[in-house]
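call fold target=unspecific monooxygenase
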Amino acid sequence: MDLAVVLVLCLSCLLLLSLWKQSSGKGKLPPGPTPLPILGNILQLDVKNISKSLTNLSKVYGPVFTVYFGMKPIVVLHGYEAVKEALIDLGEEFSGRGMFPLAERANIVNGILFSNGKTWKEIRRFSLMTLRNFGMGKRSIEDRVQEEACCLVEELRKTNGLPCDPTFILGCAPCNVICSIIFQNRFDYKDPVFLDLMERLNEILRILSSPWVQVCNNFPALFDYLPGSHNKVLKNVANLKSFVLEKAMEHKASLDINNPRDYIDCFLIRMEQEKQNQQLEFTLENLTTTVFDLFGAGTETMSTTLRYGLLLLLKHPEVTAKVQEEIDRVIGRHRSPCMQDRSHMPYTDAVVHEIQRYIDLVPSSLPHMVTHDIELRNYIIPKGTGVLVSLTSVLYDDKVFPNPEMFDPGHFLDDSGNFKKSDHFMPFSAGKRICAGESLARMEVFLFLTVILQKFTLKSVVDPKDIDTTPIANGFASVPPPYKLCFIPL
């Protein structure tokens, strides 16, 4: 038989099998575009902008639909109502973490971000309790952020008003805050070890957001057989985990169980307590992965938010001027900003919220998975099915945020100029898997941006009209384009 005929017959069989699997089995999945054999719907998705592709598909198939990433069905939630119904109203059932093949290759599927079941619940509960004990959400952590804000200002002064790339300076500040909680120490901004860690974290986020990784995550065999930037991710993750392990061993050698100094000490003490119970959650491997999760999430996401925020303020000098006027009126030039000031600074608060809404930092959140067979809008989604949450569809809902493509602090202000809350503000996701560091992140973005604008005039090296704020990548995260600016002391 001719080889071409054999291939056509094989592909036809695969197509029929794919269609049969889509319409049969335990689940009655939501509708969606017809998948191709092996490829699924990958050709109907723009890997450079998955979020936009999902929006286009939602116009055809509605707010809950199914796409195939390779041979695997993924249920997509699009729009506030669908997201709320799943993540909040049915929070437990949608609390699983979906597959992220590159995380599996990097051996970071325990810890907080990518774990499931008992491990996730135990580690998350322990981490939240420990972080609260070390001040997260309290005055004590605010003191740490304020101290780091002063260090940030001094470092920015050293630029002498000359053009600079703010990437690493802005990353050092939030990284030092999380380091003070995890390691009980901060680093000098010029420390070569510190800068190496920052570079590796920055590179991981850039690569995770690239089209190449979006394709490979759908066809994970590519990770094993093809060279590519994903190998840099594996190398960087291994290096960072090795750094964390070294710190953990130093802590273990000087541990005082009656006087824990930081997060690592608390974890080591819990490991010792659980040793006789044969608990598999509190292990050295879980410690290194959890600290890596906290270290990475607490540094790079905040660094990117601050970097993107300053770019938007350069693009919109009229917004910057209004924020600085409010800072002068409420705080002045000499007192350090504090969280109590926020309630008296509605415009600044609105700008901070609008930055986070507009940049849409993690457009599709991290993948979810249903933990039980669940009915959603008359569809039966089987246990283990992956779920993709379009946070873009919530943050860019034009019924709530008119002209969502425009950067407009008015989205969070009422007619009287008072700050206006919105249930659609979900940059940290929602439900059981909401970002564990949300309260710290909210504090940092407000205090760091406020102190920068209190102490400096931001000067662009190009005409603000020529500034392009389009992300250079927005697969896993929205990454702003590189730029330079001048920090002119006030």
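return ok
Confidence is low (pLDDT under 50) at residues 22-26. The two ends are 81 Å apart (CA to CA).
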